[in-house]
Amino acid sequence: MTERACAIAAKVEAFVRETVIPYEKDPRATPHGPTDDLVQEMRAKARAAGVLTPHVLPDGSHLDQRETAIVLIRSGLSPLGPLAVNTMAPDEGNMYLIGKVGSPEQKARFLDQLVSGESRSAFFMTEPADEGGAGSDPSMMQTSCRLDGNHWVINGRKAFITGAAGAEVGIVMAKSQDGACMFLVDLPDPAIRIERVLDTIDSSMPGGHSLVVIDNLRVPASQMLGASGEGFKYAQIRLSPARLSHCMRWLGAAIRAQEIASDYACRREAFGKKLIDHEGVGFMLAENMIDLQQCELMIDWCASVLDGGSLGTVESSMAKVAVSEALFRIADRCVQVMGGMGVSGDTIVEQVFREVRAFRIYDGPTEVHKWSLAKKIKRDHGKAHAG
C-alpha cells in the first residue's frame, strides 16, 4: 500500500475516533438520518483537520481503489464517520460519476460543491414497486424524458431516493426514445416533490429515503450527463466502485462492532468467569475475526481489478455478496455476544446490525448478484462447448 494512502487513512481514523464518535449520542442523529446541521458541524471540523473528502486529492485526482479502500474503511468506524469526512453514499458515488462523465462546465457547477462538502446529492433511479417501476431490474424504468426545444421534460415517480430531502444536487435517470438518460439538476426544484420520507431499518443517511414525484421537470439540454440513451453505460461506470465503497464503509462499522463486543466479553462475568472464556462466546468472536479478514481481502482483490482498468462487474458482484453476507454474520454475532446490551441503543452495535441488514439489499440484493453470476457460468459453458 502507498505511503500517501496509509498517511491519509491514519489521519481519518484518528479524526473519527477522537472527534466523530462523541457525536454518536447527539440528538440530531434522528431515525431519518443525521440532520444537515449536525453534518455540517462535523464537516467543519473535518475541514479544519484536513480530512474532508480524503479520497480526492488537492489537484482533483482520485486515490486508486486499493488506496480508497483503506481510507473508507477507517471512515466507517462510526456510522457518522463517512458523513463527517464526506465519503458517504450517494455523494461518493455521484462525485465519482460526475468526475468520469461530466463536462468541464458540469464539474464546475455540480461537482465542486460536492467535493468541498458544502452540499449533498441524491441519485434518482429506483421507482415504486407497486407501480411496476425499476428496482433491481433497471430496464423496468418508467420515468420518461422528451426533448422540447433546448430543454428536456421529465415525468415520473421515484422511490427510496436516499438523501433527497435536503440535497442540492440531483442525478435523475429517465428514459427517452433512445434509452436511459441521466440529468444533473439543481435542488430543490418545485417540479420534484417529496411525497414522504419512508420509515426504514437504517438511520445513518441524512434525509432518509424518500418517495418522490417528478412533474414536468424542465432541464436544460446542457445538463444531460453524457449522451441520450447512454445512461445504463454510465451507471455501470458508477456501479462497481459504488458497490465496493459500500463494502469498505460497512467493513469499518463491523470492525468497530467487533471491538465493542470483544471489550464487553472480556469485562463481563457470568457463570463464574469472563464471557470470553466461555467457548461459545469465544468461538463467535473468533469467527468474526476470520470473516473480517476475508472481507478485507475480498475488497482488496476487487479493488485491484478495478485499478487494472476493468469495469469489474462480475468481481464487484462477488465482493458485494461475500462482504455483505459476512458483515451481517459479524454484526449478528456481536449482538448475540452482548445479549441485552446488544439490542439496546447504548452502543452502536444495534445500529450496525440494522445498517448491514439493509446493505444486503442496497446496490442489488444477494439473489440478483448470484443470478447474474449464474448467467455468466452458463455463458462461459456455452462458449467452451460451442461447436
From TrEMBL:
InterPro entries named among the record's database cross-references: Acyl-CoA_dehydrogenase, Acyl-CoA_Oxase/DH_mid-dom, Acyl-CoA_Oxase/DH_mid-dom_sf, AcylCo_DH-like_C, AcylCo_DH/oxidase_C, AcylCoA_DH/ox_N, AcylCoA_DH/ox_N_sf, AcylCoA_DH/oxidase_NM_dom_sf
Domain of life assignment: Bacteria
GO terms under biological process: fatty acid beta-oxidation using acyl-CoA dehydrogenase
Pfam families, A to Z: Acyl-CoA_dh_1, Acyl-CoA_dh_M, Acyl-CoA_dh_N
Cofactor: FAD
Keywords: FAD, Flavoprotein, Oxidoreductase
Ranges of residues in domain Acyl-CoA dehydrogenase/oxidase N-terminal: 3-118
Ion transport is among the record's keywords: no
GO cellular component: cytoplasm
Domain Acyl-CoA dehydrogenase/oxidase C-terminal: 229-376
GO molecular function: acyl-CoA dehydrogenase activity; flavin adenine dinucleotide binding
Residue ranges constituting the Acyl-CoA oxidase/dehydrogenase middle domain according to the UniProt record: 122-200
Binding partners and assembly: Homodimer.
Similarity remark: Belongs to the acyl-CoA dehydrogenase family.
Entry protein name: Acyl-CoA dehydrogenase
Lineage: Bacteria, Pseudomonadati, Pseudomonadota, Alphaproteobacteria, Sphingomonadales
